[in-house]
């Protein structure tokens, strides 16, 4: 048996988009940017952004679509979904010719870190919601701790 879990904390790059599968299951897709800044050996300040494309399912999809918006800060726990062609992240070339990649996640748990009306969020306490395609009816309380 093997297992994977990925935890990502970042901000939505655009508003979520919800649709329904032919079987009536809700699915919401949104992108999350994580940022890291560091100084390299030459003393230059480097900013690194990694994008994650997230899919949430069922009731969790509906909740994400209702409450998240561009700039919302979230914690997402889920599993990586590899690109069917490459087995890795989705890779493309930006309009300026530079390479880019995004990693695909299927959300098992989404924690809303921005408060209502708090776009880029300082982590003002909001709620958490968990569930995947088969487990999407459990709402978590505000007392649950973030694991870091």
Structural write-up:
There is one protein chain. By secondary structure, the protein is mainly beta. The chain has a single domain, classed as OB fold (Dihydrolipoamide Acetyltransferase, E2P) (Beta Barrel). Helix content is 7%, strand content 51%. It has one helix spanning 58-67; strands at 6-12, 17-20, 26-39, 45-57, 73-80, 90-93, 99-112, 128-132, 135-140. Strands 1-3-4-7-5 form a 5-stranded mixed beta barrel. A hairpin with a 5-residue loop joins strand 3 (26-39) and strand 4. The longest helix has 10 residues, at 58-67. It is globular.
Number of helices: 1
Given helix and strand content, the structural type is: mainly beta
Largest sheet: 5 strands, mixed, barrel
Number of domains: 1
Q: Low-confidence stretches at least 5 residues in length (pLDDT < 50)?
A: 119-126, 130-148
Termini Cα gap: 26 Å
Rg over alpha carbons: 16 Å
Number of strands: 9
Beta-strand percentage range:
over 45%
Write a brief caption for the model.
This protein is mainly beta. Helix content is 7%, strand content 51%.
Q: What keywords describe this structure?
A:
OB fold (Dihydrolipoamide Acetyltransferase, E2P), mainly beta, 148 residues, 1 helix, five-stranded mixed β-barrel, 7% helix, 9 strands, globular
Itemize the secondary structure elements and their pairings.
Blueprint: E1 6-12, E2 17-20, E3 26-39, E4 45-57, H1 58-67, E5 73-80, E6 90-93, E7 99-112, E8 128-132, E9 135-140
Parallel strand pairs: 4-7
Antiparallel strand pairs: 1-3, 1-5, 2-3, 3-4, 5-7, 6-7, 7-8, 8-9
